[in-house]
Amino acid sequence: MHLRTVIFTSCLSVLFAVQLVAQSPTPALGTAAAAARAYTTTHGSELTDGFEAFLAIPNVAADPAGLERNAALLVSELKSAARRRNC
Question: Residue 83 has what pLDDT?
């Protein structure tokens, strides 16, 4: 399975989970869903641009340089997310 397929499937799973949480009667979960919705509404274009940049990088086993760029971008994004959350 290609890395993009795994990531795309993971993103869809997260979106599905957020929708389930949003429908949850538990107040804490509803609050988390509202926060996620507010964040994606506020940062939607930034998130879309980042995803488009990721998808623009070739992800073919015969292109090791493209795979390295994919990996570097993912590592960079994860580190950035960790810094934003002060992890």
Answer: 83
CA 14 from chain centre, in angstroms, equals: 8
Is 38:18 a contact under the CB 8 Å cutoff?
Answer: no
User: For residues 87, 52, 33 and 76, what is the CA-based torsion angle, rounded to 10 degrees?
Assistant: 0
Query: 60 and 66 in contact (C-beta within 8 Å)?
Result: yes
Task: State whether residue 4 is helix, strand or coil.
Answer: helix
* Biggest alpha carbon–alpha carbon distance for the chain: 49
The separation between the first and the last C-alpha atoms of the chain, rounded to the nearest angstrom, is 30
Q: To which H or E segment does residue 43 belong?
A: none
pLDDT digits (tens, 9 = 90+) for 1-56: 567 766 767 766 666 666 655 555 555 557 888 888 888 888 888 888 888 888 88
pTM surpassing 0.85? Answer: no
Residue 30 · residue 24 · CB < 8 Å:
yes
